[in-house]
Design a protein that fits this description.
Elements: H1 2-7, H2 12-23, H3 28-44, H4 48-67, H5 69-78, H6 87-96, E1 100-102, E2 114-115, E3 124-126, H7 140-151, H8 159-167, H9 175-181, E4 186-198, E5 207-213, E6 216-222, H10 224-229, H11 231-236, E7 239-249, E8 252-262, H12 264-267, H13 275-289, H14 292-312, H15 318-341, H16 345-359, H17 368-384, H18 389-404, H19 410-421
Helix pairs in contact: 2-3, 4-5, 5-6, 13-14, 14-16, 15-16, 17-18, 17-19, 18-19
């Protein structure tokens, strides 16, 4: 009847009811009074099934409010906005009934309001951060990645578990699937966070990479030819996809890489760190892994950064740290050339290993097309500003270095600039 009233559907039944009752011998006044009573009930009445449902909810609510007032309050606060009563009224009523309500505290509050009293103690509810206006709940992904930024690990979900739905269409197997079930010499593909890169001097240029996902680790072998051809993906990827052949010898398993793909775009900027923070974390990782070669290189770099900060009495940002890394990269390249010219292969390999480690901390390297375009733009700009003769070379290099800092070998760029200015 309530639905009929809202739609104006009860009116047509009035005359039908009056006529029918008159035909049955009822007085018109009685029939009209009966219809008026039916109409009046339609203004507030609803079915018995609704009444029973509301009564049940009212009974449960009353029981919880009487026996567990602190839990009842926390639940209602976390369900806002709802009902007739707002947070202020709920809190005031709870305080009148013996519940102590504690204020929002960045050290103790969770996102939701929660009961914080121990059994047998006074009833207490700590207000949650959700009550701070315009403060959204952090996504699971953001919480996990923030953990990795702060301490280098997370006790929550692994980052790869958050990306699994995006990786599944690409048919990347998990570490567990590969290590437990993939047969020998089968084509396979894996994707994970790069936790280690090692290039031992005795490995003839081979790079050993460890990928980590939510189920375990995959050991990847990258031969020298592939490492050189895909050095950018190998060195710059924090999230790396590897296509190759699975090699199994008993319990020892490796993925022999045939193609490398950077998957950094799936991670996004939330995993970005300052270079100094990343360096400090990687030093700890190298210590735990007892990787003496990597540890020595990273500590030498960290010492150079700290010395610069002491000398200049300032804290270095990523740009200044990058310049230090570039300088050390240049030194390694010069040493490699000198050792190879002198026939000291072992020393040259050691320098190459250190170079590989340092390059991990440089921005994604520019390709030849980008370098050519940067040089052409710089020459055009320098000439438009009136630079000539020896000054033109310096002006062009300054413009190119500002654009490609940390992303190209400036000695090679300098040679290209000279060739273009003096064809």
């Amino acid at each position: 009847m309530a639905a009929w009233r809202r739609r104006g559907g009860l009116g047509p039944f009035e005359q039908e009811l009056l006529d029918g009752m008159a035909a049955k011998g009822y007085a018109p006044e009685f029939a009209q009074r009966l219809f008026d009573q039916i109409s009046g009930f339609g203004e507030y009445g609803f079915p018995e099934s609704h009444s029973a449902s509301f009564a049940k909810l009212a009974w449960f609510s009353a029981y919880l409010k009487a026996r567990y007032p602190e839990h009842f309050l926390a639940a209602l606060l976390n369900s806002q906005p709802m009902g007739f009563y707002g947070p202020s009224q709920l809190v005031q009523d709870a305080r009148r009934h013996g519940v102590q309500v504690l204020p929002i505290d960045v050290q103790y509050s969770l996102y939701d309001s929660h009961v914080c009293s121990a059994p047998g103690s006074s009833r207490q509810v700590r207000l949650g951060l959700h009550m701070v206006k315009d403060l959204p709940r952090a996504s699971v992904g953001l919480e996990v990645l923030s953990d990795y930024q702060a301490v280098g690990l997370s006790l929550d979900r692994h980052p790869l578990s958050l990306l699994r739905t995006q990786l599944a269409p690409l048919r990347f197997s998990t570490a567990e699937q590969l290590n437990q079930a993939c047969p020998d010499r089968r084509l396979a593909r894996a994707c994970g966070l790069v936790t280690t890169r090692q290039r031992p001097g005795t490995a003839k240029g081979t790079v050993f990479v460890t990928l980590e996902d939510e189920t375990g680790s995959v050991n990847v072998i990258v031969r020298e030819e592939l490492a050189q051809a895909q050095s950018q993906a190998l060195l710059q990827s924090r999230l790396l996809g590897v296509y190759g052949v699975w090699q199994r010898d008993g319990s020892v398993c490796h993925l022999i890489a045939r193609r490398l793909v950077s998957m950094n775009h799936l991670v996004g900027t939330t995993m970005s760190q300052t270079l100094k923070t990343r360096l400090a974390e990687d030093i700890k990782t190298a210590m735990r892994a007892r990787d003496s070669g990597r540890l020595e290189t990273l500590r030498f770099l960290q010492a150079a950064i700290k010395q610069r900060e002491v000398d200049e009495r300032t804290e270095l940002g990523d740009a200044e740290v990058t310049s230090i890394i570039e300088k050390q990269v240049k030194q390694r390249r010069e040493s490699i050339q000198a050792f190879e010219s002198a026939g000291r292969t072992e020393s040259a390999e050691k320098e190459k290993s250190e170079l590989l480690i340092l390059q991990e901390y440089l921005p994604q390297q520019a390709d030849s097309a980008e370098i050519d375009a940067a040089i052409a733009d710089a020459i055009t700009q320098a000439q438009a500003e009136g630079a000539q003769g020896p000054a033109l070379m310096g002006k062009v290099m300054g413009l190119v270095k500002a654009k490609l800092a940390g992303r190209a070998d400036m000695s090679q760029v300098s040679a290209q600039v000279k060739q273009k200015l003096n064809p």
